[in-house]
Each structure stands twice: as C-alpha cells, then as structure tokens.
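Go through this:
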Amino acid sequence: MSLEPVVLFFVLGLAAGLLRSDLKIPGSIYDALSIYLLLAIGLKGGVKLAEQATPGMLLDGVLIIGAAILIPLVAFPILRYLGKLKRADAASLAAHYGSVSVVTFSIGVAFLAQAAQEYEGYLIVFLVLLEVPALVIGVILARYGAGQVRWGRMLHEVFFGKSIFLLLGGMIIGYVAGPQGIEPLDKVFFDLFKGALAIFLLEMGLVAAGRLADLRAYGVFLIGFGIVMPILSASLGTAVGWMLGLSVGGTMLLAALYASASYIAAPAAMRIAVPEANPGLSIGAALGVTFPFNILIGIPLYYWMAQTIHQIGA
C-alpha cells in the first residue's frame, strides 16, 4: 500500500527543520488546528458511539484499560535499570509511553479510510480513558518512598486540559446529536479533516526536527527504546484486540493506541506532578523517535500484524 499522503507533510516539515529552512507555521494557526482536530475526532467518536454502544463494551473497556496498565509498568524498569535513567526521568517516560497520542490515532483512522477498512468507532473513547491510568502510575513510580504529590492540580490538568476537555466534549456532543443531528456539520468537521491534519503534521515535523537534539545524552538507548517499546505495546494491543473479537481495523487501531506515546497531555501533567524530570528526554523520545516511527513504519506494520493474527485465528 502507498504511503498515506498526509504523512508526507510530516516528512516535509521534518526535512524543513533539519535543513534549517525558515518555514514556520504561526502559533495561532497551530492552536486553531489543534482545537479543530480534537473536536472533529471527539464528534466522530461520539456519533460512532451512538450507533454502536452496547452493554458488552463495558467489559471490553475494563480489559483494554487493564492490559494498557502493563505498558508503563514494563517500561519503567527498562528505563531505570537498563537505561540507567534517574527515577523521575524513567517514571515520566513510562507515563508518556503508557499514555496515547491523538494524532497517531488520527493517522491510523486516515490509513484505514484509504484502505476502505471498517473499525469499531467506540475506540475513540479510549483516547480519553487511556490517558489517566498511565499518568497516575507515572506519578506513583516517581514518588514511591518519598516526596509529595499535588494530586488535585495534576488531575485538574489531566481532565480539564485542552486535549481531554475537547475530546470528551466533542464526544458528548456527537453522542447526544447522533448521526442525523451532526449531518449539517459534516462538511466542516469531517470533509476538511484530512486537509487540516496535513497542515498540522507539517508543523509536527518542524517540532520533531527541533527535538532531536534533546536525545543526545541518552541517544542510542532512547532511540532503541522509542522504536522497540511501541512494537512491544502494539503486540499487546493486537493480542487484546483479537481476543475481544475486534475487526481487523479495530485491532490495528487498538495496537496503534497502545504503541503511541503522548506529547500533549502527558508533558503538561508531568510538568506539574514530577517537575524534576527532564521534559527534553520524554518529549524528545516521544516526538522525535516514536511519533515518526509510528506514522512512517509502525501503522503499516500494525495493520499487517492485525491482518496476520486474524488470518491465523480464522
């Protein structure tokens, strides 16, 4: 399958940053695109939820979240003892990799649309639900045995920060309005989605190029971790998706969710809860290594993994 065209905009931005082009996306446009994408994804998920919600989804949700909790618990000892990172840095990175990326999810959805592959729309719900457990575990790992945690401020940042608030708000509006109620907004929020995502990825490429310098201190280890950890997480997601009876598309999206690393909600929460952690390491690994790996190689790989496990299990 050919490379998803929107991904090429990320490559263009990355090349511009590495070649020190004077290309810049104004901050106000980046903010507006962020709000648009988060609302559009939330609305689409809410509509899908209104169409597909069943009592059985509750048990699926418990299993999906329960399995996802393993990711930061596996990542932390690897970072702490194999990577020799400080406790705070290892805990912060584990939280970033246990959390999820809304942009990676969006590219996964665009990939499935290009492949004409259906998926379970209610998986959008886990963009919200999977953020919280990883962040809480990251704080516990950082503070185990010493220190104080400002839980109130951290949880406020998690639940009322822009990303979660807009996703959750859009999902509620989409669920309440349903497919027919949202139809008048289709042209704005659904038809223009891929164009907005392309410009957003252009800016993400520029940002990723700027973060590569942060990886120098732990270069080889963090680059390896940023590639191997998503594959391990995606393998877990593929197995869980298949065991739950998700479609090939749904299995791939769950794998992509597990494999993604947060660079929006997690940095904001860790800055408050674990201020001694170096944000350059976590954002550099998540945005400079894992994000480009996932959108260039990971998502096609996870799609292949989902197809393969369904063929074997058939």
Notes: The chain has 16 helices and no strands. The mean pLDDT is 84. The CA atoms of residues 228 and 290 lie 9 Å apart.
